[in-house]
Every structure is written in C-alpha cells, then in structure tokens.
Amino acid sequence: MFPSYADHILHFGIVGGSISGLSAAYWLRRAGHIVTIIEKHPIQVFQDQKYGGLRIPPNITRLFKKIDGMEDTFQKKGSLNEGTLFYQEETGEVVGRTLFEEELMADLGSKYYRVPYSDLWNHLYEFCKACDVRFKFDFQVARATFGNPGKEVPKITSTAGEEFHCDVIIGADGHNSTIREMILPDLLHDEDSSDSDELDESSKAAHFPNIEEWVTFSIPLDKVKNDSDLNFLTQHYFGVMWMGDGVAHFSGIEGNDQYVINVFYPFRRFGSDDMDWDSTEPIPVSAEEIEGTECVPLCV
Ligand SMILES: Cc1cc2nc3c(=O)[nH]c(=O)nc-3n(C[C@H](O)[C@H](O)[C@H](O)COP(=O)(O)OP(=O)(O)OC[C@H]3O[C@@H](n4cnc5c(N)ncnc54)[C@H](O)[C@@H]3O)c2cc1C
Q1: What percent of the chain has a predicted confidence (pLDDT) above 70?
Q2: CA 8 to CA 64: how far, in whole Å?
Q3: pTM value?
Q4: Contact 240, 254 (CB under 8 A)
Q5: Which atom of ligand 1 is found nearest the CA of 254?
Q6: Cβ pair 161, 101 in contact under 8 A
Q7: Which intervals hold domain FAD-binding (predicted)?
C-alpha cells in the first residue's frame, strides 16, 4: 500500500494497542516495515469505550492531521475546546477565563478538540488494518528478552507462555510499562528513590496541594441539557474549572453526546493507584462524600 522508504525492512513488535501503539504502527508501516501490535485486552474494550476521552491540543492535532480524514473525524465526532472558565466554587463567581481565540489558533496552526476515546481509536485501527498491520489481542506480555545481535532475535513471552519473535520491540504499554521496566530497571528505581528523597514536604505541596486522587465520569449530554439548573453548562464549548477550598471539578462537553466531569479529591477515595481501559464497573459516589470535602454543591 505504501512505498517503502526503509533500506532494511524490519519486523517491529509494538506492545500496547492504544493511541501510541496504533500511531507508531501506522508510521512504521508507511515507512515499509512489518508491524505486529500486541495488546493484553480484547478488541471490544477499545471499540466501544464509553469512559474516556482525549483533550487534543493544537500541536497534537497538527500531527494527527497528517493521517487522512483524522481532522474530519475530530470535527464530526469530537467537540471544540474554546477555552476555560474559572469559577469560584463557593460563590459561583467567574474569576477568570482563558480564550482560545481564532487568531491564536491560526498561529498555532490547528484547533483544540476533545474527542471520545473510541472514535480516535477506531479511526487509527481502521487505518492500521488497511495497511496490513498485524494484531495479537488478548496477549498480555509477561516478559521480553532483547536478543543478541547475530545470535538470537528479541522475544516477547505472554503470561500464557506464548512466544513471539521480532527484530525490534517498542514499548507503547502506558505509564506502568512492563517494557520500560525491563529496559531501564536501574534508571527507574534510581528515579523513584531520588523523587522521594529529594522532594521535601513543601515542594510536594506546591505540585498538587491536598489532591490525592481524581476521578472522571461522564453524563449523557441530553440529561445535562434537559436539567434546567445545569442546561447553562451546555450553551458553550468551554472547559469549566470549579475551584474550591482543597477540591476542584473540571467539566465540559466531549464529542456529541457526553458531558465529562473530573473530580479532584483531597483524600484517597478508591484505594487504587491506577485505572485501566477495562475498568468499566460503575463506582457510586454519595452526596455525603462530596460534602466531606467541605464543598457544598451550588446551583448558579
Ligand atoms: C479510564 C481512562 C480515562 C481517561 N480519560 C481521559 C480524558 O478524559 N481526557 C484525556 O485527555 N485523557 C484521558 N485519559 C488518558 C489518555 O487516555 C492517555 O493519556 C492515552 O490513552 C495514552 O495513550 P497511550 O497509548 O500512551 O497509553 P494507554 O492508553 O495507557 O495504552 C497502553 C496500552 O498498553 C496495553 N498494555 C499495558 N501493559 C501491557 C502488557 N503487559 N501486555 C500487553 N499490553 C499491555 C494496555 O492495555 C493499553 O491498551 C484516560 C485514561 C484512562 C485509562
């Protein structure tokens, strides 16, 4: 499908079939290489993922525009981000605003979108499939060995014991990467220890005062539109930052049918350090817990 630019055609094994993995696969195929994506989840987790979206600022939009039809997908399935309104949570007063004005966006060469995760993923996936990227879903990588030039090729082994050989392994397996842990174990552990040793209490507080955890959830846009108290939030495409005393909420329209809210908690609520793409269990949050943050929900 693509002309080959590479002098030597290599077989890349990319661990992680999310946004970075698919993007890397597409560009490597364009350069003429053979690419296999290895992903621990089944495909359904990505194709109909209702729980996340991506804020795509102009520098990333500019990159994605190089993939045919991507900006069209952003325009049809995503929503524009026009800026941010800052509200004082206790009084409902608007205390500041950032506007992404047309002139500024023109200078940056692109717009700022919010796009539901599955719409972006499906677009990249269809492109990868059309250019013969190979896929191994349900393959959780347990370990990788990086080979020995001229003697043995790199090898990836799944938790079920299946083996996969390629010329180059790419780690696109997220922020808790198994591959990074294998390539850079010493560096990672040095960084971990230097982080905790060097940051004293005052500098930690300066990064994230009192915020232990944040949670994202989405509400069908129609429900927000049909609520007379909340309808005003759907009259524009600004992100809305509600700033309280030690607590914050950030919300906005995402795509055609979701209103997304991030709640920043001053305490550890869910007891887990991480979420994954298959974390689809609904998590109840009670009014008492929100009150426990000393923030009183307010209609303005
Ligand atoms: C639930 C959730 C909601 C989010 N919501 C937002 C949002 O509203 N707005 C926003 O801007 N960003 C959001 N994000 C963050 C954004 O989605 C990430 O920044 C983006 O997905 C990063 O892409 P990535 O490809 O680098 O990594 P990831 O999306 O983390 O992908 C890593 C991939 O590697 C796979 N993998 C990991 N380990 C292995 C292994 N051992 N073997 C095989 N495969 C493996 C994982 O299953 C995953 O598919 C959210 C993330 C999550 C998890």
Answers
A1: 78
A2: 26
A3: 0.84
A4: no
A5: 8
A6: no
A7: 14-186
